[in-house]
Amino acid sequence: MSRADDFEELRPLLFAIAYRVLGSVSEAEDAVQDTWLRFSGYEDEPSSTKAFLSAVVTRIAIDELRSARVRREQYVGEWLPEPLIDDPYDDPTRAAELSDSVSTAALLLLERLTPLERAVFVLREVFEFDYPSIASIVGRSAPACRQLAGRARRHMDAGRTRFQADRRARDELAARFFDAVMAGDMDGLRELLAADVQMIGDAGGKAPAWPNRIYGPENVARLLVATVTLVSSIGVTLERHDVNGQPGAILRDRDGRVFNIVSLDVLDGRVQAVRSVINPDKLGHVGPVADAYALLREANDFRRPPA
User: Fold this and answer.
1) pTM above 0.85?
2) 141 and 17 within one domain
3) Which of 139, 159, 179 is the last residue of a domain?
4) CA of 159: how far to CAs of 110, 112, 153, 243, 272, in Å?
5) Average pLDDT over the chain, rounded to whole?
6) Confidence of residue 96 (pLDDT cuts 50, 70, 90)
7) Largest Cα–Cα distance in the chain?
Protein backbone atom coordinates (compact mmCIF):
# COMPACT_ATOMS: atom_id res chain seq x y z
CA MET A 1 0.00 0.00 0.00
CA SER A 2 1.02 3.60 -0.49
CA ARG A 3 1.81 5.93 2.39
CA ALA A 4 -1.55 7.65 1.82
CA ASP A 5 -3.36 4.29 2.00
CA ASP A 6 -1.59 3.44 5.25
CA PHE A 7 -2.62 6.76 6.70
CA GLU A 8 -6.27 6.44 5.66
CA GLU A 9 -6.47 2.99 7.21
CA LEU A 10 -5.29 4.42 10.54
CA ARG A 11 -7.23 7.70 10.33
CA PRO A 12 -10.16 6.46 12.52
CA LEU A 13 -7.74 5.49 15.31
CA LEU A 14 -5.86 8.79 15.05
CA PHE A 15 -9.06 10.81 15.26
CA ALA A 16 -10.30 8.70 18.18
CA ILE A 17 -7.11 9.35 20.13
CA ALA A 18 -7.09 13.08 19.34
CA TYR A 19 -10.77 13.58 20.19
CA ARG A 20 -10.47 11.90 23.58
CA VAL A 21 -7.42 14.01 24.40
CA LEU A 22 -8.95 17.27 23.15
CA GLY A 23 -12.74 16.93 23.56
CA SER A 24 -13.19 18.83 20.30
CA VAL A 25 -14.10 17.44 16.88
CA SER A 26 -12.63 20.38 14.97
CA GLU A 27 -9.37 20.37 16.95
CA ALA A 28 -9.08 16.59 16.58
CA GLU A 29 -9.58 16.84 12.82
CA ASP A 30 -6.90 19.54 12.66
CA ALA A 31 -4.53 17.33 14.67
CA VAL A 32 -5.10 14.44 12.27
CA GLN A 33 -4.50 16.70 9.27
CA ASP A 34 -1.27 18.01 10.82
CA THR A 35 -0.22 14.40 11.42
CA TRP A 36 -0.67 13.62 7.73
CA LEU A 37 1.40 16.66 6.73
CA ARG A 38 4.25 15.53 8.95
CA PHE A 39 3.97 11.93 7.78
CA SER A 40 3.86 12.85 4.10
CA GLY A 41 6.99 14.96 4.53
CA TYR A 42 8.87 12.37 6.59
CA GLU A 43 11.81 11.10 4.58
CA ASP A 44 12.43 7.81 6.38
CA GLU A 45 10.14 4.80 6.51
CA PRO A 46 8.97 4.15 10.09
CA SER A 47 9.36 0.61 11.38
CA SER A 48 5.73 0.74 12.58
CA THR A 49 3.38 3.16 10.84
CA LYS A 50 0.76 2.78 13.59
CA ALA A 51 3.27 3.56 16.34
CA PHE A 52 4.71 6.51 14.41
CA LEU A 53 1.35 8.10 13.59
CA SER A 54 -0.08 7.48 17.08
CA ALA A 55 2.95 9.21 18.56
CA VAL A 56 2.68 12.20 16.22
CA VAL A 57 -1.05 12.77 16.70
CA THR A 58 -0.77 12.41 20.48
CA ARG A 59 2.05 14.95 20.71
CA ILE A 60 0.14 17.40 18.52
CA ALA A 61 -2.97 16.91 20.66
CA ILE A 62 -1.04 17.49 23.90
CA ASP A 63 0.39 20.75 22.56
CA GLU A 64 -3.04 21.86 21.34
CA LEU A 65 -4.66 20.98 24.67
CA ARG A 66 -2.19 23.16 26.55
CA SER A 67 -3.21 26.21 24.52
CA ALA A 68 -6.89 25.20 24.54
CA ARG A 69 -6.85 25.21 28.35
CA VAL A 70 -6.23 28.96 28.31
CA ARG A 71 -9.14 29.53 25.92
CA ARG A 72 -11.47 27.37 27.99
CA GLU A 73 -10.66 29.34 31.14
CA GLN A 74 -12.01 32.42 29.32
CA TYR A 75 -15.06 30.62 27.91
CA VAL A 76 -18.43 32.29 28.45
CA GLY A 77 -20.71 30.11 30.57
CA GLU A 78 -20.55 26.32 30.84
CA TRP A 79 -18.05 24.52 28.60
CA LEU A 80 -19.03 21.14 27.14
CA PRO A 81 -17.13 18.99 24.63
CA GLU A 82 -18.05 19.27 20.97
CA PRO A 83 -20.77 16.65 20.37
CA LEU A 84 -19.52 13.51 18.66
CA ILE A 85 -22.23 11.91 16.54
CA ASP A 86 -20.29 8.99 15.09
CA ASP A 87 -16.98 7.65 16.39
CA PRO A 88 -15.08 6.41 13.30
CA TYR A 89 -13.00 3.97 15.37
CA ASP A 90 -14.68 0.62 15.86
CA ASP A 91 -13.71 -2.46 17.84
CA PRO A 92 -16.70 -4.80 18.27
CA THR A 93 -15.04 -6.61 21.18
CA ARG A 94 -14.81 -3.35 23.18
CA ALA A 95 -17.79 -1.40 21.86
CA ALA A 96 -19.32 -0.59 25.27
CA GLU A 97 -15.97 0.44 26.76
CA LEU A 98 -15.13 2.68 23.82
CA SER A 99 -18.59 4.24 23.95
CA ASP A 100 -18.29 5.06 27.64
CA SER A 101 -14.80 6.52 27.14
CA VAL A 102 -16.19 9.12 24.75
CA SER A 103 -19.24 10.04 26.86
CA THR A 104 -19.61 13.67 27.81
CA ALA A 105 -19.33 12.76 31.49
CA ALA A 106 -16.01 10.97 30.90
CA LEU A 107 -14.64 13.82 28.79
CA LEU A 108 -15.52 16.32 31.51
CA LEU A 109 -13.63 14.18 34.03
CA LEU A 110 -10.65 14.11 31.68
CA GLU A 111 -10.68 17.92 31.75
CA ARG A 112 -9.52 17.71 35.38
CA LEU A 113 -6.28 15.97 34.37
CA THR A 114 -3.10 17.59 33.15
CA PRO A 115 -2.53 17.26 29.40
CA LEU A 116 0.15 14.63 30.00
CA GLU A 117 -2.02 12.63 32.41
CA ARG A 118 -4.90 12.79 29.97
CA ALA A 119 -2.83 11.54 27.05
CA VAL A 120 -1.32 8.70 29.06
CA PHE A 121 -4.72 7.67 30.41
CA VAL A 122 -6.27 7.66 26.92
CA LEU A 123 -3.43 5.64 25.40
CA ARG A 124 -3.31 3.10 28.22
CA GLU A 125 -6.89 2.73 29.45
CA VAL A 126 -8.79 3.27 26.20
CA PHE A 127 -6.46 2.03 23.48
CA GLU A 128 -4.36 -0.41 25.53
CA PHE A 129 -0.90 0.79 24.47
CA ASP A 130 1.87 -0.78 26.55
CA TYR A 131 3.95 1.42 28.83
CA PRO A 132 7.18 1.33 26.78
CA SER A 133 5.21 2.57 23.74
CA ILE A 134 3.53 5.30 25.79
CA ALA A 135 6.88 6.33 27.24
CA SER A 136 8.28 6.73 23.74
CA ILE A 137 5.26 8.79 22.66
CA VAL A 138 5.18 11.26 25.57
CA GLY A 139 8.91 11.43 26.27
CA ARG A 140 8.81 10.01 29.80
CA SER A 141 10.13 6.79 31.30
CA ALA A 142 7.88 3.75 31.51
CA PRO A 143 7.76 3.92 35.36
CA ALA A 144 6.83 7.61 35.17
CA CYS A 145 4.03 6.74 32.73
CA ARG A 146 2.77 4.09 35.14
CA GLN A 147 2.59 6.74 37.84
CA LEU A 148 0.81 9.17 35.54
CA ALA A 149 -1.70 6.50 34.52
CA GLY A 150 -2.31 5.49 38.12
CA ARG A 151 -2.89 9.08 39.23
CA ALA A 152 -5.23 9.69 36.30
CA ARG A 153 -7.13 6.48 36.97
CA ARG A 154 -7.72 7.45 40.60
CA HIS A 155 -9.08 10.85 39.54
CA MET A 156 -11.35 9.24 36.95
CA ASP A 157 -12.61 6.50 39.27
CA ALA A 158 -13.42 9.03 41.99
CA GLY A 159 -15.80 10.96 39.75
CA ARG A 160 -16.95 8.38 37.24
CA THR A 161 -20.69 7.94 36.69
CA ARG A 162 -22.01 4.39 36.26
CA PHE A 163 -24.09 4.53 33.12
CA GLN A 164 -27.13 2.36 32.50
CA ALA A 165 -25.67 -1.13 32.03
CA ASP A 166 -28.61 -2.45 30.02
CA ARG A 167 -28.34 -0.46 26.80
CA ARG A 168 -31.68 -1.65 25.50
CA ALA A 169 -33.41 -0.41 28.66
CA ARG A 170 -31.43 2.84 28.45
CA ASP A 171 -32.50 3.45 24.87
CA GLU A 172 -36.13 2.63 25.65
CA LEU A 173 -36.10 5.14 28.52
CA ALA A 174 -34.52 7.77 26.24
CA ALA A 175 -37.24 7.15 23.63
CA ARG A 176 -39.92 7.70 26.28
CA PHE A 177 -38.12 10.84 27.43
CA PHE A 178 -38.03 12.44 23.99
CA ASP A 179 -41.60 11.35 23.23
CA ALA A 180 -42.76 13.05 26.43
CA VAL A 181 -40.80 16.22 25.58
CA MET A 182 -42.27 16.43 22.10
CA ALA A 183 -45.79 15.72 23.38
CA GLY A 184 -45.50 18.32 26.14
CA ASP A 185 -46.26 15.59 28.68
CA MET A 186 -45.08 17.18 31.94
CA ASP A 187 -46.27 14.35 34.18
CA GLY A 188 -44.72 11.66 32.02
CA LEU A 189 -41.47 13.59 31.79
CA ARG A 190 -41.16 14.16 35.54
CA GLU A 191 -41.46 10.41 36.13
CA LEU A 192 -38.37 9.80 33.99
CA LEU A 193 -36.15 12.37 35.72
CA ALA A 194 -33.95 11.61 38.73
CA ALA A 195 -34.61 13.58 41.91
CA ASP A 196 -31.24 15.34 41.50
CA VAL A 197 -31.44 15.77 37.73
CA GLN A 198 -29.67 18.77 36.27
CA MET A 199 -29.72 20.49 32.89
CA ILE A 200 -26.58 22.12 31.52
CA GLY A 201 -26.37 24.37 28.47
CA ASP A 202 -23.34 25.39 26.42
CA ALA A 203 -23.92 28.50 24.31
CA GLY A 204 -20.47 30.06 24.57
CA GLY A 205 -22.03 33.52 24.59
CA LYS A 206 -22.99 33.02 20.94
CA ALA A 207 -26.56 31.71 21.25
CA PRO A 208 -29.53 32.03 23.62
CA ALA A 209 -29.04 30.20 26.91
CA TRP A 210 -30.22 30.14 30.48
CA PRO A 211 -27.67 31.76 32.83
CA ASN A 212 -27.16 28.84 35.23
CA ARG A 213 -27.66 25.11 35.57
CA ILE A 214 -31.25 24.00 36.08
CA TYR A 215 -31.89 21.57 38.94
CA GLY A 216 -34.77 19.28 39.90
CA PRO A 217 -37.44 17.37 37.94
CA GLU A 218 -40.03 20.15 38.04
CA ASN A 219 -37.71 22.88 36.76
CA VAL A 220 -36.05 20.71 34.12
CA ALA A 221 -39.35 19.32 32.82
CA ARG A 222 -40.93 22.76 32.67
CA LEU A 223 -38.01 24.30 30.77
CA LEU A 224 -37.74 21.41 28.32
CA VAL A 225 -41.43 21.40 27.47
CA ALA A 226 -41.63 25.18 27.18
CA THR A 227 -38.57 25.41 24.92
CA VAL A 228 -39.46 22.51 22.63
CA THR A 229 -43.09 23.62 22.38
CA LEU A 230 -41.93 27.11 21.40
CA VAL A 231 -39.52 26.05 18.66
CA SER A 232 -41.78 23.26 17.36
CA SER A 233 -44.28 25.93 16.40
CA ILE A 234 -41.93 27.09 13.63
CA GLY A 235 -40.98 23.67 12.32
CA VAL A 236 -38.02 22.65 14.49
CA THR A 237 -37.83 18.85 14.57
CA LEU A 238 -36.08 16.39 16.86
CA GLU A 239 -33.95 13.63 15.34
CA ARG A 240 -33.01 10.83 17.74
CA HIS A 241 -29.31 9.96 17.59
CA ASP A 242 -26.65 8.73 19.97
CA VAL A 243 -24.37 11.59 21.04
CA ASN A 244 -20.96 10.77 22.48
CA GLY A 245 -22.07 7.17 22.76
CA GLN A 246 -25.09 8.03 24.92
CA PRO A 247 -28.75 8.69 24.07
CA GLY A 248 -29.34 12.05 22.49
CA ALA A 249 -30.97 14.05 19.74
CA ILE A 250 -30.25 16.63 17.07
CA LEU A 251 -32.72 19.51 16.75
CA ARG A 252 -33.03 20.94 13.24
CA ASP A 253 -34.94 23.85 11.77
CA ARG A 254 -37.40 23.45 8.89
CA ASP A 255 -34.51 23.64 6.40
CA GLY A 256 -32.55 20.87 8.12
CA ARG A 257 -29.98 23.16 9.72
CA VAL A 258 -28.65 22.15 13.15
CA PHE A 259 -30.15 24.18 15.99
CA ASN A 260 -29.14 22.25 19.09
CA ILE A 261 -27.68 18.89 20.14
CA VAL A 262 -28.87 17.25 23.35
CA SER A 263 -27.40 14.28 25.20
CA LEU A 264 -28.60 12.36 28.25
CA ASP A 265 -26.94 10.58 31.16
CA VAL A 266 -29.09 7.61 32.23
CA LEU A 267 -28.56 5.83 35.54
CA ASP A 268 -30.77 3.50 37.59
CA GLY A 269 -33.70 3.89 35.23
CA ARG A 270 -33.79 7.68 35.38
CA VAL A 271 -32.31 10.59 33.43
CA GLN A 272 -29.58 12.08 35.61
CA ALA A 273 -28.40 14.89 33.34
CA VAL A 274 -29.53 16.69 30.21
CA ARG A 275 -26.77 18.47 28.30
CA SER A 276 -27.53 20.95 25.54
CA VAL A 277 -24.93 22.33 23.11
CA ILE A 278 -26.25 25.30 21.15
CA ASN A 279 -22.97 27.16 20.56
CA PRO A 280 -22.85 27.37 16.73
CA ASP A 281 -19.06 26.97 16.74
CA LYS A 282 -19.52 23.44 18.10
CA LEU A 283 -22.20 22.30 15.66
CA GLY A 284 -20.73 22.96 12.22
CA HIS A 285 -19.17 19.50 11.86
CA VAL A 286 -22.68 18.00 11.96
CA GLY A 287 -24.03 20.16 9.12
CA PRO A 288 -25.18 23.70 8.28
CA VAL A 289 -26.02 25.59 11.48
CA ALA A 290 -29.21 27.53 12.15
CA ASP A 291 -29.27 31.02 13.62
CA ALA A 292 -30.67 30.28 17.09
CA TYR A 293 -31.42 33.92 17.87
CA ALA A 294 -33.39 34.30 14.63
CA LEU A 295 -35.30 31.08 15.28
CA LEU A 296 -36.36 32.15 18.76
CA ARG A 297 -37.39 35.59 17.52
CA GLU A 298 -39.50 33.93 14.85
CA ALA A 299 -41.03 31.54 17.37
CA ASN A 300 -41.91 34.35 19.77
CA ASP A 301 -43.42 36.40 16.93
CA PHE A 302 -45.46 33.38 15.82
CA ARG A 303 -46.89 32.91 19.31
CA ARG A 304 -47.50 36.60 19.96
CA PRO A 305 -51.22 37.41 19.57
CA PRO A 306 -52.06 39.96 16.85
CA ALA A 307 -52.47 43.55 18.00
Assistant:
1) yes
2) yes
3) 159
4) 10, 10, 10, 21, 14
5) 92
6) confident
7) 76
